[in-house]
Amino acid sequence: MKFGAPHSCFDSRLTCIDCQTQVCPQCMEVCPVGNRCKRCAERFTSHLTKVSPKILLQTLLAAGVVGFAYGSIHNFLFGGFFIWFLIYGVGFLVGRGLHKVANHKLGGKIIATVVSGLLIGALASPARDVMLGQSASFGFDDEDDFVSMPKSGDDSVAAAEETARMSFPNFEKAFKSQEGDDFKGRTLFKDGDLVEHLWFNVESIENGKLTGRLANKPAELVNIRKGAPVSITVNQLEDWHYVNQDDVDVGNFTARAQRRAAHQNNGFGMFTTGSFWMTFGIFIAGVLSPILRVRMRN
Description:
By secondary structure, this protein is an alpha+beta fold. The protein has helices at residues 38-49, 53-73, 81-101, 108-123, 128-131, 155-166, 168-176, 253-265, 273-297; strands at 14-15, 22-23, 29-31, 34-36, 180-191, 194-206, 209-214, 229-233, 239-244, 249-251.
């Protein structure tokens, strides 16, 4: 038995299968063919950790595509604990594919490249605002997105409507000074027993009275249609919204209240920043599992 290990192995009778150097459970590397010292283990596995720039680039691009795809579908990933196992399983399968793209290389460079690609792809996807915690504005991309929103009966919604009416002077000031665009208000419309809460484009504000035209098509009401004239007082106003000069949504208090109520009723809060990072972390763990599994086996 050869002695001379980097540290004292005491009375260990284990040896490296190649060079016969004394090893112990603390310093040996377990390989498929037997125990090796660190020097011999590196000699036989170094080719797995040497990665060319080409492989790193193709792995980064592939991981970026995967990250973008995940960010694009994350809003549909709901289902409680079951979906977490599904996300991990899908991540594991994706990880095997990425490992193949990486030419089955191992090591910190591959792991860092995969994680970086996933993050970059997700940040380039529609999930960017949720990832960065900027999803609180709940803005709308076009007029057709201003759909009827029935009241939930929750006190938080009523409080949001009161907040909108109390802060109406801010909305009026911004409208008259044109400190933004896409000025809208929301109010209640009735047709017999049918009730809808609809948004309208504000065209003028005079003496506490708002006039404009309906911004979206009612879902059930037949006595009013998109583009119909609207005239209400501030007391009838349920909410207001506009986009300021910094392209930030302002107002929309009731939508925020309804989202918060939905998150409270939904234990995992699928649309929150925290829940996104939790599920994305599970996905990343699944992706890295086959790579780390091979690393440990070698």
